[in-house]
Every structure is written in C-alpha cells, then in structure tokens.
Amino acid sequence: MNYKTLFLCSLVGFVLFKEANCLNKRCIKCRSRGELGSCGDPFPFNVTEPEAEVGIHVVACPSGWCGKSYEGNIGALKNDDYGAATERMCLQRPPSDYEERCAYTMWSHRKVYMCFCNGDLCNSSYKIAAVPSVILVTISVLLYNICYS
C-alpha cells in the first residue's frame, strides 16, 4: 500500500471538509433584559453547547452576518438597568458597506448600540481563533516530508 498517496488524499479530504463546514454560518439568537437573562455580557456559555441554557439558540444564518444590540441604559448609566436589553440575532442583510463595526443605529424605531460581524457564531462574546487551513496544510506537508523522506 502506498502510504504517501493515502496521506495526501486524507489531508486534502480533511481540508475540503473543513472549508465546506465553514460555509454554513450560524449566529446566537437570544434576548434578555438587564441582569435577569442569560444573553447579556459577559456571555459565559460555550457556543458549541447552547442547549444547556434556556433561551439561547444557535440558528442558521443565510446572510452570514450576525448582530448584537444593546438597547436602553448603557455606558455610564449601566447601573440603572431599567429598560436595558441585550439581543443577539442573525441579520437578514449585511450592512450596506459590508464592514464589521459597532455603532449607534436605528433598529425597530429605537436608537440602539449595535455590533455587526461576519462569521460563524461571531456574535458570542469571546471568539477562539481557529487555525487557518493554510497553516494546517503547511504544517502537515512539513510533517509529511520529515516522516516520509
């Protein structure tokens, strides 16, 4: 059996599977008011196990753009959280300039502070950077050359 061919085919198959899996973008969907809910910051939940907490859902997002909005008292008056709410959602359309950012905007006839991001589960608080496929392929080819040369 030719191990070189088997190794290279496995490597190519893994990279293609990883890239195809990243095409399905998802967002966190939840809403909470003040300190009572589980949607606010910090977001202490593992996004791979959202079913562990009531009210937090991972939804498919065809646009690939997620959002997080803060409505009500935020900033210096955060201690007075009457009417304050945090919402995480999938956006139907990307921002007109396709830029990831946070800014004040009008949402459902209200002024809210909103963040826009593009990526799989990007509207959770903390994002763990995944190893890019190019780096993974480079390391694999180096290991292949060391082991089978």
How would you describe this structure to a colleague?
The protein has about 150 residues and is α+β, with helices and mostly antiparallel strands. The protein has a single domain (about 20-149), classed as Ribbon (CD59). Helix content is about 25%, strand content about 30%. It is built from 2 helices and 6 strands. The chain has helices spanning about 5-20, 135-149, and strands at about 25-35, 55-60, 65-70, 85-90, 100-105, 110-120. Strands 2-1-4-3-6-5 form a 6-stranded antiparallel beta sheet, with no helix packed on it. A hairpin with a 2-residue loop joins strand 5 and strand 6 (about 110-120). The two termini are about 15 Å apart. The relative contact order is 0.19.
Number of helices: 2
**What fraction of residues sit in β-strands?**
25-35%
CATH class: Mainly Beta
Q: What is the percent of helical residues?
A: 10-25%
Order of helices and strands: HEEEEEEH
Number of domain units = 1
Tell me what the CATH architecture is.
Answer: Ribbon
Question: Ranges with pLDDT <50 over ≥5 residues?
Answer: none
Strand order, sheet with most strands: 2-1-4-3-6-5
End-to-end CA span: 17 Å
Number of strands: 6
Rg for CA atoms: 20 Å
Class per helix and strand makeup:
alpha+beta
Mean pLDDT: 75
CATH topology: CD59
The oligomeric state is single chain
Biggest beta-sheet profile: 6 strands, antiparallel
Give the CA-based shape: elongated
GO cellular component, one term: side of membrane
Pfam families: QVR
Membrane topology: Lipid-anchor; GPI-anchor
InterPro entries: QVR-like (IPR031424), Sleep_regulator (IPR050975)
